[in-house]
Amino acid sequence: AQSVAQPEDQVNVAEGNPLTVKCTYSVSGNPYLFWYVQYPNRGLQFLLKYITGDNLVKGSYGFEAEFNKSQTSFHLKKPSALVSDSALYFCAVRDFFSGNTPLVFGKGTRLSVIA
Amino acid sequence: GAGVSQTPSNKVTEKGKYVELRCDPISGHTALYWYRQSLGQGPEFLIYFQGTGAADDSGLPNDRFFAVRPEGSVSTLKIQRTERGDSAVYLCASSPGLAGGIDEQFFGPGTRLTVL
Protein backbone atom coordinates (compact mmCIF):
# COMPACT_ATOMS: atom_id res chain seq x y z
CA ALA A 1 0.00 0.00 0.00
CA GLN A 2 1.12 3.53 -0.71
CA SER A 3 1.47 6.14 2.02
CA VAL A 4 2.79 9.62 2.59
CA ALA A 5 3.98 11.22 5.80
CA GLN A 6 4.27 14.92 6.41
CA PRO A 7 5.87 15.02 9.85
CA GLU A 8 5.21 18.69 10.56
CA ASP A 9 1.70 20.04 11.03
CA GLN A 10 2.99 23.61 11.00
CA VAL A 11 6.11 25.34 9.67
CA ASN A 12 6.89 28.95 10.53
CA VAL A 13 9.49 30.92 8.63
CA ALA A 14 10.45 34.57 8.35
CA GLU A 15 9.94 36.31 5.05
CA GLY A 16 13.08 36.16 2.93
CA ASN A 17 14.41 33.04 4.64
CA PRO A 18 14.60 29.66 2.93
CA LEU A 19 11.77 27.25 3.63
CA THR A 20 11.50 23.47 3.66
CA VAL A 21 8.33 21.40 3.96
CA LYS A 22 9.10 17.73 4.56
CA CYS A 23 7.56 14.69 2.93
CA THR A 24 8.44 11.00 3.08
CA TYR A 25 6.70 8.26 1.16
CA SER A 26 6.25 4.52 0.98
CA VAL A 27 5.43 2.59 -2.21
CA SER A 28 6.08 -0.93 -3.36
CA GLY A 29 7.58 0.15 -6.67
CA ASN A 30 8.88 3.41 -8.08
CA PRO A 31 7.03 6.54 -6.99
CA TYR A 32 5.39 9.35 -8.84
CA LEU A 33 5.44 12.28 -6.39
CA PHE A 34 3.43 15.50 -6.36
CA TRP A 35 3.14 18.69 -4.34
CA TYR A 36 -0.08 20.69 -4.14
CA VAL A 37 -0.91 23.94 -2.35
CA GLN A 38 -4.29 24.90 -0.93
CA TYR A 39 -5.27 28.47 -0.21
CA PRO A 40 -8.30 29.24 2.00
CA ASN A 41 -11.63 28.44 0.32
CA ARG A 42 -9.90 27.33 -2.84
CA GLY A 43 -9.12 24.00 -4.46
CA LEU A 44 -5.75 22.35 -4.51
CA GLN A 45 -3.29 23.83 -7.00
CA PHE A 46 -0.55 21.75 -8.57
CA LEU A 47 3.00 22.92 -7.78
CA LEU A 48 5.35 20.29 -9.18
CA LYS A 49 5.89 16.60 -9.74
CA TYR A 50 8.65 14.02 -9.95
CA ILE A 51 8.22 11.27 -12.50
CA THR A 52 11.73 10.31 -13.53
CA GLY A 53 15.07 11.86 -14.39
CA ASP A 54 16.70 14.74 -12.53
CA ASN A 55 16.18 14.47 -8.79
CA LEU A 56 15.72 18.23 -8.44
CA VAL A 57 12.37 19.31 -9.78
CA LYS A 58 11.41 22.93 -10.32
CA GLY A 59 7.81 24.07 -10.19
CA SER A 60 5.48 27.01 -9.92
CA TYR A 61 6.05 30.18 -7.85
CA GLY A 62 9.77 29.48 -7.35
CA PHE A 63 9.25 26.19 -5.52
CA GLU A 64 11.43 23.15 -6.03
CA ALA A 65 11.64 19.69 -4.56
CA GLU A 66 14.36 17.11 -4.30
CA PHE A 67 13.68 13.44 -4.77
CA ASN A 68 15.88 11.27 -2.54
CA LYS A 69 15.34 7.58 -3.19
CA SER A 70 17.58 6.30 -0.39
CA GLN A 71 15.72 8.41 2.18
CA THR A 72 12.34 8.00 0.47
CA SER A 73 11.84 11.72 0.72
CA PHE A 74 10.53 14.50 -1.49
CA HIS A 75 10.98 17.72 0.48
CA LEU A 76 9.57 20.97 -0.89
CA LYS A 77 11.89 23.97 -0.82
CA LYS A 78 12.05 27.62 -1.72
CA PRO A 79 15.16 29.81 -1.39
CA SER A 80 13.33 32.92 -0.19
CA ALA A 81 9.87 32.76 1.36
CA LEU A 82 7.12 35.28 0.69
CA VAL A 83 4.19 36.13 2.96
CA SER A 84 1.94 35.10 0.07
CA ASP A 85 3.36 31.56 0.31
CA SER A 86 1.40 31.08 3.53
CA ALA A 87 -0.97 28.21 2.80
CA LEU A 88 -1.57 24.51 3.32
CA TYR A 89 0.79 22.20 1.44
CA PHE A 90 0.10 18.59 0.51
CA CYS A 91 2.48 15.92 -0.69
CA ALA A 92 0.99 13.03 -2.70
CA VAL A 93 2.25 9.77 -4.18
CA ARG A 94 1.24 7.26 -6.78
CA ASP A 95 2.98 3.94 -7.40
CA PHE A 96 4.49 3.67 -10.88
CA PHE A 97 3.08 0.17 -11.28
CA SER A 98 -0.44 1.27 -10.35
CA GLY A 99 -0.86 3.31 -13.50
CA ASN A 100 -3.51 5.99 -13.62
CA THR A 101 -4.81 5.58 -10.10
CA PRO A 102 -5.85 8.02 -7.41
CA LEU A 103 -3.26 9.91 -5.47
CA VAL A 104 -2.54 9.17 -1.84
CA PHE A 105 -2.14 12.41 0.07
CA GLY A 106 -0.39 13.33 3.28
CA LYS A 107 -2.22 15.17 6.05
CA GLY A 108 -0.79 18.50 4.99
CA THR A 109 1.59 21.05 6.45
CA ARG A 110 0.49 24.57 7.20
CA LEU A 111 3.16 27.07 6.20
CA SER A 112 3.15 30.46 7.86
CA VAL A 113 5.52 33.10 6.51
CA ILE A 114 5.94 35.98 8.90
CA ALA A 115 6.80 39.46 7.67
CA GLY B 1 -9.30 27.90 -20.23
CA ALA B 2 -11.95 26.92 -17.73
CA GLY B 3 -10.92 24.80 -14.81
CA VAL B 4 -12.83 22.17 -12.88
CA SER B 5 -16.07 23.53 -11.48
CA GLN B 6 -18.23 22.13 -8.70
CA THR B 7 -21.74 22.96 -7.65
CA PRO B 8 -23.03 23.86 -5.20
CA SER B 9 -20.16 25.46 -3.34
CA ASN B 10 -21.97 24.90 -0.06
CA LYS B 11 -24.71 22.47 0.85
CA VAL B 12 -26.46 22.29 4.20
CA THR B 13 -28.84 19.41 4.72
CA GLU B 14 -30.53 17.52 7.47
CA LYS B 15 -29.63 14.08 8.67
CA GLY B 16 -31.34 11.44 6.57
CA LYS B 17 -31.75 13.56 3.45
CA TYR B 18 -30.43 12.82 -0.04
CA VAL B 19 -27.86 15.10 -1.71
CA GLU B 20 -26.26 15.38 -5.12
CA LEU B 21 -22.94 17.07 -5.78
CA ARG B 22 -21.94 17.99 -9.32
CA CYS B 23 -18.55 18.17 -10.99
CA ASP B 24 -17.72 19.66 -14.39
CA PRO B 25 -14.22 18.56 -15.40
CA ILE B 26 -11.86 20.26 -17.77
CA SER B 27 -12.99 19.65 -21.32
CA GLY B 28 -11.30 16.64 -22.87
CA HIS B 29 -10.11 15.14 -19.60
CA THR B 30 -11.00 11.47 -19.56
CA ALA B 31 -10.06 10.77 -15.94
CA LEU B 32 -12.21 12.11 -13.10
CA TYR B 33 -11.71 11.64 -9.38
CA TRP B 34 -13.76 12.32 -6.27
CA TYR B 35 -12.06 12.92 -2.95
CA ARG B 36 -13.32 13.84 0.49
CA GLN B 37 -11.41 16.19 2.78
CA SER B 38 -12.17 16.43 6.47
CA LEU B 39 -10.86 19.21 8.67
CA GLY B 40 -7.14 18.85 9.30
CA GLN B 41 -6.75 15.98 6.87
CA GLY B 42 -5.54 15.49 3.35
CA PRO B 43 -7.94 14.50 0.58
CA GLU B 44 -9.10 10.90 0.76
CA PHE B 45 -9.98 9.04 -2.40
CA LEU B 46 -13.57 8.02 -3.04
CA ILE B 47 -13.99 6.98 -6.68
CA TYR B 48 -12.21 7.26 -10.02
CA PHE B 49 -13.74 7.30 -13.50
CA GLN B 50 -11.98 6.63 -16.76
CA GLY B 51 -14.47 7.78 -19.35
CA THR B 52 -17.97 6.70 -18.37
CA GLY B 53 -17.01 3.78 -16.22
CA ALA B 54 -15.94 3.68 -12.61
CA ALA B 55 -12.43 2.24 -12.78
CA ASP B 56 -12.00 2.17 -9.02
CA ASP B 57 -14.68 2.75 -6.40
CA SER B 58 -12.79 1.20 -3.51
CA GLY B 59 -12.80 4.46 -1.57
CA LEU B 60 -16.56 4.79 -1.24
CA PRO B 61 -17.21 4.34 2.49
CA ASN B 62 -20.51 2.42 2.17
CA ASP B 63 -23.45 1.83 -0.14
CA ARG B 64 -25.02 5.18 0.69
CA PHE B 65 -22.47 6.74 -1.63
CA PHE B 66 -22.77 6.43 -5.38
CA ALA B 67 -21.38 8.35 -8.35
CA VAL B 68 -22.14 8.45 -12.07
CA ARG B 69 -20.58 9.91 -15.18
CA PRO B 70 -23.05 8.89 -17.90
CA GLU B 71 -21.54 10.76 -20.86
CA GLY B 72 -17.93 10.75 -19.81
CA SER B 73 -17.90 14.40 -18.82
CA VAL B 74 -20.00 15.74 -15.93
CA SER B 75 -20.11 13.59 -12.83
CA THR B 76 -22.55 13.51 -9.95
CA LEU B 77 -21.77 12.19 -6.49
CA LYS B 78 -24.91 11.02 -4.72
CA ILE B 79 -25.26 10.47 -1.00
CA GLN B 80 -28.35 8.81 0.42
CA ARG B 81 -29.59 9.02 4.02
CA THR B 82 -26.91 11.52 4.95
CA GLU B 83 -25.26 11.28 8.36
CA ARG B 84 -23.47 13.93 10.39
CA GLY B 85 -20.22 12.10 9.74
CA ASP B 86 -20.61 12.80 6.03
CA SER B 87 -19.89 16.48 6.69
CA ALA B 88 -16.71 17.38 4.79
CA VAL B 89 -15.45 19.14 1.69
CA TYR B 90 -15.96 17.01 -1.39
CA LEU B 91 -13.32 17.62 -4.03
CA CYS B 92 -13.44 16.71 -7.67
CA ALA B 93 -10.36 16.47 -9.89
CA SER B 94 -9.76 15.67 -13.53
CA SER B 95 -6.75 14.78 -15.61
CA PRO B 96 -6.04 13.98 -19.26
CA GLY B 97 -5.81 10.32 -18.35
CA LEU B 98 -2.41 9.71 -19.90
CA ALA B 99 -1.18 6.16 -19.83
CA GLY B 100 1.07 5.33 -16.92
CA GLY B 101 -0.38 7.93 -14.59
CA ILE B 102 2.21 10.64 -15.10
CA ASP B 103 -0.28 13.48 -15.42
CA GLU B 104 -1.20 15.75 -12.55
CA GLN B 105 -4.76 16.17 -11.41
CA PHE B 106 -6.57 19.50 -11.59
CA PHE B 107 -8.87 20.15 -8.66
CA GLY B 108 -12.12 22.04 -8.36
CA PRO B 109 -12.86 24.38 -5.46
CA GLY B 110 -14.90 21.74 -3.66
CA THR B 111 -18.39 21.47 -2.21
CA ARG B 112 -18.65 21.96 1.52
CA LEU B 113 -21.33 19.59 2.81
CA THR B 114 -22.78 20.14 6.26
CA VAL B 115 -25.20 17.61 7.67
CA LEU B 116 -27.15 18.91 10.65
Short structural summary:
Chain A is 0% helix and 52% strand. Chain A is an all-beta fold and 115 residues long.
Q: Overview of this structure, please?
A:
The complex is a heterodimer of chains A (115) and B (116). Chain A is 0% helix and 52% strand. Chain A is mainly β. Chain A contains no helices and 12 strands. The mean pLDDT of chain A is 92. Chain B is globular. Chain B has strands spanning 5-7, 10-13, 19-24, 31-37, 44-50, 53-56, 65-68, 75-79, 88-95, 106-107, 111-115. Chain B has 116 residues and is mainly beta. The A-B interface holds A 4, 32, 34, 36, 41-46, 49, 51, 90, 92, 94, 96, 98-108 and B 4, 31, 33, 35, 40-45, 48, 50, 55-56, 59, 91, 93, 95, 97-110.
Annotate the secondary structure layout.
The complex is a heterodimer of chains A (115) and B (116).
Chain A: E1 3-5, E2 10-14, E3 19-21, E4 24-26, E5 31-38, E6 44-50, E7 56-58, E8 64-68, E9 73-78, E10 87-95, E11 104-105, E12 109-114
Parallel strand pairs in A: 2-12
Antiparallel strand pairs in A: 1-4, 3-9, 5-6, 5-10, 7-8, 8-9, 10-11, 10-12
Chain B: E1 5-7, E2 10-13, E3 19-24, E4 31-37, E5 44-50, E6 53-56, E7 65-68, E8 75-79, E9 88-95, E10 106-107, E11 111-115
Parallel strand pairs in B: 2-11
Antiparallel strand pairs in B: 1-3, 3-8, 4-5, 4-9, 5-6, 7-8, 9-10, 9-11
Radius of gyration of chain A: 14 Å
Average pLDDT level of chain A: 92
Low-confidence spans of chain A? none
Q: Low-confidence segments of chain B, ≥5 residues, pLDDT <50?
A: none
- Choose one word for the global shape of chain B: globular
Radius of gyration of chain B: 13 Å
Enumerate how many helices of chain A there are, as a single number: 0
Number of DSSP-assigned strands of chain A = 12
List keywords for this structure.
heterodimer; A: 115 residues; mainly beta; 6-stranded mixed β-sheet; 12 strands; 52% strand; globular; B: mainly beta; 4-stranded antiparallel β-sheet
